[in-house]
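Minutes, project check-in
Item: structure for the 464-residue chain
Input as provided by the requester:
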Amino acid sequence: MTRKNHVDGGRFSRMARMATMAARTTAELVAAKAVQRVTGGDELDLGTALMPTAERMVQVLGEMKGAATKIGQFVSLVDQDIFPQEAKRALHKLLNQAPQRMAWSQVEAVLLAELQRPLSQLFADIDPSPLAAASLGQVHRATLPDGRAVVVKVQFPGVDTAIESDLRNAAMMAKALSLAGGVFDNKHYYKELATVLRRELDYRQEIEQAELYRAAMAPWPDLLVPQYFADLSSERVLTIEFLDGPTMLEVAQDANSSADLRFRIGAQLVAATWGPFLRHRVIHADPHPGNYVVLPDGRLGVLDFGATKQFSLPFVHAYWRLLDAAFSRKEADLFTILVDAGFDMQGDRVRAEAWLRDLSSVVERPFARDHYDWGGCRIVADVIAMKSNYGLTPLRVRAPEESLMFYRSAAGAAGDLRMLRSAGNFRQVLMDVADRARGDLAPELQAAVGAGPHQVGGWGQWQA
C-alpha cells in the first residue's frame, strides 16, 4: 500500500524539535520558579504560569508520536515534582488524548489494507470518531456481527519510521556518552530499548504477550485481561474486547473517588505489577493509568501488552531474596544479591554498598511500614538528591539491561499510585501478593525460591 504518513519520521527534524522544546521548557521552568521565590506565590500561581509550557509540551510530543510521546507519558507520571498540579493535568493528556489524530479516511485505508476485507464484513458498526489516541496509534469503538463490543487499535502510518529515527538519534547520544568514558557506556540499555520499541510496532506480538501475562496472573481473579481477536488483527491493527468502566486516570482525577476505592485500586495495581513477575517472571512494562480500567464488578482490567517482558531466572530469584529479607525485617546482603542478578559492581565496594543501602532505604519505604500515603511520596526526588552525595558511584553500579523494563514498570506504577493518592498498608498488600505467587510458582522458580518467611495468609483483605 502506498500510504500517506501521518507522522513526521525525519531523523533530524525530530531531533531539532525535541532539542528546541527541551531548551525552552527548561528556561521557562527556571524563570517561573525564580518568580515564585521572589513573589512568594503558591502552587496555584506557579501552575498558572507554567500552563502554556505544559500545553506546548503536549502539542509537540503528541504530534511527534512514537518514542517522543512515550517519553512525555513517562515524565508526566514519574517526575511529578517538576510541574504543579494543574500543569500536570495538562501533561496527562499524552496518556490517551494526544493531539493530531488520524482522519477517518486514513483509518479506513489502513483497516482495508491490513485486514483485506470490507469493513461491513468485519464489524456491525465502527465509530469514525476515535475513543483515544496516544504514542503509536488510535482506538475506535466497534461492534462485531454477533453483538460483542470491541475496540480497534489502528497504528499511525509512518510511526515505524519515526521510531527508527528516534532510535538512531538515541544511538548517537549513547555513543557520544560512551566516549566520555566506560562509566557512561549505555549501549546495552540502548539495545534493550530498541528491541522493546520495535516489538511494540507489531500488534501480532502484543497478542502473544497478552496471553503470556494472562497465564501469569491466573492466581489473581480480580485482575482481567480482555479477549483478543487474532482474526481481526494484523501487524498494524488490533481488535480487543471492550472493557466498560473509567480508567485509573479518570478515577485519580475524580475528586469524589473515595479513599477506600483509591486503596483498593492501588492494591490491585501492586498485584498486577509484582504478581506475574514473582510467579512467572513476567512484567507489564507500560503501566500508565490509561492502561487500567476499573470495572463495575470491582475487577481491574489491564490493557496494552506491547512492552511485556519475561525476565531471567537469576534476576527474579534475586528479587525474591530481597523481598524475603525485607519481610523478615533483616538486612540483606545487597552487594552479593545484585551481583548474582547480573549487576556489574565497579569501583570501591565499600562506597557501592553504602550507596545501595541508602538507595534501598528510600525505595522500600512504601513496603517497610504498616501505612503509606502515596500522595505524599517523594521517592524520586529523594533518590535524585541523595545521588549527589555519592559522585560517580551510582553510575558504577551498572544494572543488567533487562532491568530497564523492570524500572520502567516499577517507576510507572509508583507514579500511578502517587497520582491515585492511594494510602494504606501496602506492606501487607505486597506480602499477600508474594504469598499468592509463592503458592503457584513457575516450575523453574520453585527450587530457587523456597518456602520463605512470610506465609501470612490474609489475601483479599483489601478487595471489594
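Outcome recorded: The radius of gyration is 22 Å.
No further action items on this chain.
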